[in-house]
Automatic annotation (TrEMBL):
Residues 4-302 form the Inosine/uridine-preferring nucleoside hydrolase domain. It holds the Pfam family IU_nuc_hydro. Keywords: Glycosidase, Hydrolase. This is Purine nucleosidase. It comes from Paenibacillus forsythiae. Its EC number is 3.2.2.1. GO terms for molecular function: purine nucleosidase activity.
Length: 311
């Protein structure tokens, strides 16, 4: 079975990504670590606990982590995910509680307890992972695989013209992580933005399922869908975090990828968080990442449908 740690700024698509990992046969979620990003940390933690309750997986521990980026103030994305990060659905306060241990400590401890066995999915600003690496750099060689949802393959930013949100919120952390020597795969914003990952047609099918999970899906992604409606005239979702989890579960979802040298800009005000992918090997540096170039969206959609039909 696959053993995962998921690091998340739990809002919207982060929740469906968690739901998929928590309910997928053969996947063991060892821990969920939360980090400030989409919304402030306490809400990320609360939403992760709500998602555990929905998934009926109260056994999975949640470790709260960094309340802000390494060197900068936090800015959030309530305009994308709603004031609560859950589409403004006002879920009741979860009865589950988070653990005391800090996310960075938990990451270091778990990787050392299971060297070579754990895969980590980082679907949020990379603050927790940069902190964990600073506490114990040996984790880079002991983690089986690091899947990073973040960055964008050459200037397809979503939160600045040059940068994707997760890298933009904590560019220093992203810079530390891409150079740390992890066995890293980058799933950038470009992969899920060139064409809609879920469009009106698929969203209608999901709505019509009317299962407990499909209703959860429609709630947590409500603000995001309404935003698509305003911008494009129809509902659409890019689903970057769930897509990354799906790739970790079934590598065939990553239709095309290649090894490249990547770097993250963190000094410029204009282009901070920009992820450079040396597509033409101009720098002649050793590749430090597998970069996803294209997703198999049909396969991904099938995975989401089968997940939401479960109950
Ligand atoms: C990323 O930013 C967040 O809003 C999403 O949760 C995703 O992880 C996309 O840029
Ligand atoms: Ca996220």
């Amino acid at each position: 079975s696959k053993i995962l740690i998921i690091d998340t700024d739990t809002a919207g698509d982060d929740c469906t990504a968690l739901l998929m990992a928590l309910r997928w046969p053969g996947v063991e979620v060892k821990a969920i670590t939360t980090v400030a990003g989409n919304i402030p940390l306490h809400l990320c933690t609360r939403n992760a606990l709500t998602t555990l309750e929905t998934a009926e997986r109260p056994d999975v521990p949640v470790y709260p982590g960094a309340v802000k980026p390494l060197m900068r103030g936090l800015f959030t994305a309530e305009h994308v995910h709603g004031p609560d990060g859950m589409g403004g659905s006002n879920f009741p306060e979860p009865s589950l509680k988070p653990r005391e241990e800090h996310a960075a400590n938990a990451i270091v401890r778990l990787i050392n307890e299971h060297p070579g066995e754990i895969e980590m999915i980082a679907q949020a600003p990379l603050t927790n992972l940069a902190l964990a690496y600073s506490l114990d750099p040996s984790i880079a060689g002991k983690l089986k695989h690091l899947w990073v949802m973040g960055g964008a393959n050459n200037f397809l930013g979503n939160d600045s013209p040059a940068a994707e949100f997760n890298f933009l919120v904590d560019p220093e952390a992203a810079h530390i992580v891409v150079h740390a020597g992890f066995n890293l795969t980058m799933v950038g914003w470009d992969v899920c933005h060139r064409q809609p990952v879920m469009a009106e047609e698929q969203l209608r099918l999901i709505e019509a399922m009317d299962t407990e999970f499909s209703r959860f899906y429609m709630k947590v992604l409500r603000t995001n869908m309404e935003r698509g409606l305003k911008q494009h005239g129809f509902r659409r979702l890019s689903h970057p975090d769930t897509l990354t989890v799906a790739m970790a579960i079934d590598n065939r979802v990553m239709a095309r990828s290649n090894r490249y040298y990547i770097d993250v800009e963190h000094k410029s005000e204009l282009t901070k968080g920009y992820s450079l992918v040396d597509l033409n090997n101009i720098l002649k540096k050793e590749p430090n990442a597998e970069v996803c170039l294209e997703a198999d969206l049909e396969r991904f959609r099938e995975m989401v449908f089968s997940l939401l039909k479960q109950r």
